[in-house]
Amino acid sequence: MRNASLWRAVLGVQDTVVEDVEFDETAQVVVAQVRPRRVARGRCGICGGRAGWYDRGQGRRRWRTLDLGTIEVFLEAEVRRVNCRIHGPTVCQVPWARHGAGHTRAFDAQVAWLATHCSKRAITELMRIAWRTVGSIIARVWAETAAGIDAFADLTRIGIDEISYKRHHKYLTIVVDHDSGRLVWASTGRNRATVRAFFDALEASGHGRCAQIAHVSADGAEWIADVVAERCPDAVRCADPFHVVGWANDAVDEVRRQAWNAARRAGHTQSHGWVDGRRVTVSTGEAKTLKRTRFVLWKNPQNLTEPQRVKLEWIAKTDPRLYRAYLLKEGLRTIFKLPVAQAAEALDKWISWARRCRIEAFVLLQQRITRHRTQILASIEHGLSNGLIESANTKIRLLTRMAFGFATPQPLIALAMLTLGGHRPALPGRQ
Ligand SMILES: [Zn+2]
């Protein structure tokens, strides 16, 4: 065929002979007839090992590849079967696509790149594929990437965390490297078996690697702490400050809800009739204002807008109990900014303040803080970058929203690892 090398370059294929290219005017698609070059022939599709001819398989097959201008393009080839010593009769390997895939490597690479940069809608429209197909593509791209890298190299300081997906019914356990900020591992589940699976993978990647872990930060959950004690007993266990501040935010929220309910009982609501057998009421006056203070109480004071500052002053005047809860939360947050020498004393002062505050949510929080005192101070002493865990946590949460519609959690894990694992996919034909 004339211009065979031009077509090979245009189609982005290697070790491939382009036999013919035709334009199907009815379907408005370009179809390139191809075959693997001699060097790329006779290999098992699963393991890539040399294998003898078996049979002609199921004849010719098509793979979708990148568009040419505005036109869809397919590669078409005959796929024979080889008889692999390990895998038996298997469809042979082709240089332009992964085993079992309906899209070429160039197509897969572009989809993986887009998935780490664009919205769901942009990818499915541009590439003309369903979101589930995007899921299968990124899962196979990550599987191949993972096989070619050592994600656990030089791992000494790690953070272990859990993230809910699928509307809070299912969980992923994630492991982040405190030094590089990279996500190094993610798996479904949140129990001892999940954490053990991580340490098994770590030890399998290199003997003695569990023993090299010097610091582990977590949210204080026992299922993490127990396995860490069992697998790397010498590691210093730390409590992630952002989780501890999160506990305090939950306590403030509980106090705010109590204040809101009290205001509602005091009659600061308006009935709006009945819907589906339930009375619908709308908060008015004090109850309404309290309902809208949630973010004011959560935000760091230096980030408050002027109207939010006014709202906080209103709370200080009208609800001293809620304001005290807010001050307790802020006090705890400040401790994490202190040098370690002052932090221990400040934490003890905070504990005795909270113990006597007569707000149940904070008395309980104080007990929890006391239980984790050593781990909290350890994280301040060893300067474990809280920001890294928090930002990985926030980014994965955004990805879990994007991952709605994937059939299994594997594409979500693949998306998280490709985006945050330090091995972002490159566009096809570029480095
Ligand atoms: Zn094989």
Structure report:
- This protein has 431 residues and is α+β, with helices and mostly antiparallel strands.
- It folds into 3 domains: 1-102, no CATH class; 157-240 and 385-420, Nucleotidyltransferase, domain 5 (2-Layer Sandwich), CATH 3.30.420; 241-381, no CATH class.
- 46% of the residues lie in helices and 21% in strands.
- It is built from 16 helices and 14 strands.
- Strands 10-9-8-11-12 form a 5-stranded mixed β-sheet, with helices on both faces. The chain has a 4-stranded mixed β-sheet with strand order 1-2-5-4.
- A hairpin with a 4-residue loop joins strand 8 (157-165) and strand 9 (170-177).
- The longest helix has 25 residues, at 241-265.
- The protein is elongated and about 85 Å long.
- It starts with a helix and ends in an 11-residue tail after the last helix.
- The model has no long low-confidence stretch (mean pLDDT 90).
- Residues 44, 46-47, 49, 84, 86-87, 90 line the site of zinc ion (ZN).
Average pLDDT figure? 90
| 3D shape | elongated
Number of helices: 16
Give the names of the bound compounds: zinc ion
Chart the SSEs and their pairings.
Elements: H1 4-11, E1 16-24, E2 29-36, E3 52-55, E4 60-68, E5 71-78, E6 81-84, E7 88-91, H2 105-115, H3 120-127, H4 131-147, E8 157-165, E9 170-177, E10 183-188, H5 192-205, E11 215-218, H6 222-231, E12 236-239, H7 241-265, E13 269-275, E14 278-283, H8 285-291, H9 294-298, H10 306-318, H11 320-335, H12 340-355, H13 360-371, H14 373-381, H15 386-402, H16 410-420
Parallel strand pairs: 2-5, 8-11, 11-12
Antiparallel strand pairs: 1-2, 3-6, 4-5, 6-7, 8-9, 9-10, 13-14
Helix pairs in contact: 2-4, 4-16, 5-6, 7-8, 7-11, 7-13, 10-11, 11-12, 12-13, 12-14, 15-16
The structure holds zinc ion.
The site of zinc ion (ZN) has 8 residues, from loops.
